[in-house]
Amino acid sequence: MTLKKISAGLFLALMFLPFAYGQTAPSGKYGGQLVLSTTSDPKSFNDIIAKETSTTLVTNHIFEGLTTTNAFTTKVEPHLAKRWEVSEDGLTWTFYLRDDVLWSDGQPFSADDVLFTFNDLIYNVDIPSSARDIFTIEGQTFKVEKINPYTVRFTLPVKFAPFLRGMGQAILPKHKLKSVVDNGRFNFTWGIDTPPSEIVGTGPFLLARYDPGQRLVFKRNPYYWKRSPRGDQLPYIDKIIYLIVPNQDVDLLKFVEGTTDFYGFRGMDYPLLKPLEQERDFTVYDLGPAMGGNFITFNQNPGINAETGKPFVEPHKLAWFTNVIFRRAAAHAIDKEKITEIVKNKLGYPQHSPIGPGSGFFYNPDVTKYDYDLDKSRQILAEAGFWDRDGDGIIEDEQGHKVEINLYTNSGNTERVDIAGIIRRDLEKVGMKVNFMALEFNTLVSKLNSTFEWDAIILGLTGGIEPHFGKNVWNSKGQLHLWHPRQESPATPWEARIDELFLEGVQELDENKRKVYYDEFQQIVSRQLPVIYTVLDAQIVGVRNKFENLQPTNYGGVFHNLEELYLKEEYR
Questions:
Q1: Domain positions in the chain
Q2: Does residue 529 come out as left (phi exceeding 0), alpha (psi in the -120 to 50 range) or beta?
Q3: What count of other Cβ atoms lies within 10 Å of the Cβ of residue 375?
Q4: Are 57 and 42 in contact (CB under 8 A)?
Q5: Helices 248-256 and 414-429 meet at what angle, rounded to 10?
Q6: Do 191 and 45 form a contact (C-beta atoms < 8 A)?
Q7: Percent of the chain residues topping a pLDDT of 90
Q8: Which fold has domain 10-220?
Q9: DSSP secondary structure string, 147-166?
Q10: Is 364:523 a contact under the CB 8 Å cutoff?
Q11: Does domain 293-537 have CATH number 3.10.105.10?
């Protein structure tokens, strides 16, 4: 859900190229590179259809929205739009766009690009965009009109509380993509085989190179519009390199040896790395609880594979997974304290609902919680007809099917693999047979939202401070309604109620009244357990001591102002 930037003449184009032809930079801050790492190749370079962080890791550097959220105050601020006006009834929003923005190929950014992004991409029913879930209310879309080349008007069908924050949606270039939309090829455009020069954005960096399994390289966008308070064209850093590593253990080694400049700690890493701060020239930052979530979910999709004619989930397993009593028994078998102690080295927080304490105002601490109790889990299973009928140590259902589950997570995330090991052992203690497999991340994502052939998955989702931006997960028709996506109508009364709560919550402008709706939503999820939450990460990171103007925050992380960072002279 990340969305993002001839000309008035040759003079304007040259204004945006102050260093392209070897001129001396007006500041001594320019140069150097930032080296990061990732445990997965990107799945795509197409921001609109992205549903995974392996893609948005790339696109977040390239594309921008009309607004942005201040990492310190979390207030919405102008970005590609320099200002806006809203009508008294809150339904008509007029955005005045910056007229000094060029796409990275030198073409001017304008209102046409905004209209194209919404009308031709997000609201195109042939394009599987998660953003459509968020920007649609009861089947009604926003009316997006061009007033003049640098003015856009949005007319909303109803009041939409997070509208301004939602305008952080990435804007894509009409001049590069209109023809492929018209030809019905957009869903296959900007894949990982696309030459980097073809991917055009307004963001501070451009994709310069992609070597599968090895690295992603970004370079400074010479046309970037943003300037520092003293008038320097941003960004200062020349290059960003992401090394593609097989797992978090290798990620750790690269950081310790000094190859990479940033590392997100696992709990187990803290006692190793904290004493090395001075020796290895980095600083440890504790940013507080993460805003996302980690969970196990069971496949409740009743659909049929059109190619094989077989159900996505075997009927007897579907009966288990759609039974909330089965899910509650599983919840009582998850030892969050052990996960926090062993996997997180006590640097984590038990999680019970979709919105965690790091998200602030909308967090509801008073949800249903499931204490770790294997005896209670066994009792619940037995009362629901699951018990060991033949004495082999594996429980069966009332039809005699052994409770055997295939459990997956992504192989590059060693913490999730360890969490899976703990959950597997505890589920086996209550009589289930669990076959665990770790898969490459993009393969796992394909199972989740393409083939739909899986039993249980341990995974995580990103989070934020605005509940409505999770609508693509929680709405029954949502593209990321993981356990049973894209329902024609709600499969259960509680899913229908969540649909209602999101509809009511997004139209309520009073934050205190909005909280009532989202509190109930969190309570429903905690009772019905479509996903069973495990442990929330503590955001502890290490950053090489080579950067000036680093200003970490809980909301924005370490590199929220990446375009403003510059390297100390000795590192350039």
A1: 10-220, 293-537
A2: left
A3: 9
A4: yes
A5: 140
A6: yes
A7: 86
A8: Dipeptide-binding Protein; domain 1 (3.90.76)
A9: EETTEEEEE-SS--TTHHHH
A10: yes
A11: yes
